[in-house]
Amino acid sequence: MTQIKNNWTDQELVALYNKPLMELLYEAATVHRQFHDPNKVQVSTLISIKTGGCPEDCGYCPQAARYHTNIETNDLMSVSQVKAMALRAKSNGSSRVCMGAAWRNVKDGEDFEQVLEMVRTINKLEMEVCCTLGMITENQAKRLAEAGLYAYNHNIDSSEEYYKEVISTRGFEDRLQTIANVRKTNVTVCSGGIIGMGESVADRCAMLRTLANMSPQPESVPINALVAVEGTPMEDQKPVEIWEMIRMVAVTRIAMPLTQVRLSAGRKDMSHEGQAMCFFAGANSIFAGDKLLTTPNPNVDDDMKLFAKLGMKPEKPFAKKAQPQTVEAQDSSFLPLGEKPKWTRPGHSIEKNKLASKKA
Ligand code: SF4
Question: 30, 29, 45, 86: which is closest to 314 by C-alpha?
């Protein structure tokens, strides 16, 4: 039986990544079968509860206010809007709802209270609730946990080294701090990254080393292929080849045997055969719905056809961990603290980000 290992080196992971593909696939599929039912897929629906107008400068993101992209922005949705979308997702086979808000970090106040109410409402629908709201403090993580949050997503995006080529408005260590804050609760951690931003194989493996050497390892790891959006600094990046995606999924599976490896952005450009190979390599989760925040995604019918062809079934909610309790707002043990944490502003400059900001 494969042991969980938290002392991976970059060299070991690069060696795995570069193995002859059939050997890599066989090894990954063997590990996958030891820890998971290979015919089950966990299906999540991502709802953009607040879109656009973000103060950050992530080079891949059309939601950054400084870039000139063509997205429809929206203020924070109401609880009833989100509940209706969650019910639709549930009837389409999703076991998890992930709510994303384009914020740098969470600020205590009305909007956060509204998000906490969304968490309570969706948990009561017996769906796993995940949030991705930017950086959070320990107290905010505790308040989300108390509301019934199942998972918190906070991607590390790339290697620590390459992070400086992607984002200048926050540091890699801020990401790790938020993950550490989530770990002080019973909320599970979802953290992964993006390939195709111009990084090297060594960067991809260094990113996986950071995740795999966390103890415990993240319960879910989304692997995104960059969707190059016009107007962002990365608009000219060439698409990720399916072989790179398969290798990345396989190494993630071997390094993190227990985790749910999620096929995320970029799936729209993958054939059914390509996705099937990713499932064979150890992917066991997808994002469903025809939009992933702002970029296109396969529609639910297409996914269900694919599952039927492959004999795969959506996983039930709480298959890996029991449903958290929801504490109502009036019974809460935590007060909003109005903290103003000093998240870093590294201030290095990234030429392509500056150029994209200036472009009309
Ligand atoms: S990825 Fe998130 S933090 Fe970065 S610009 Fe987009 S919405 Fe903002």
Answer: 45
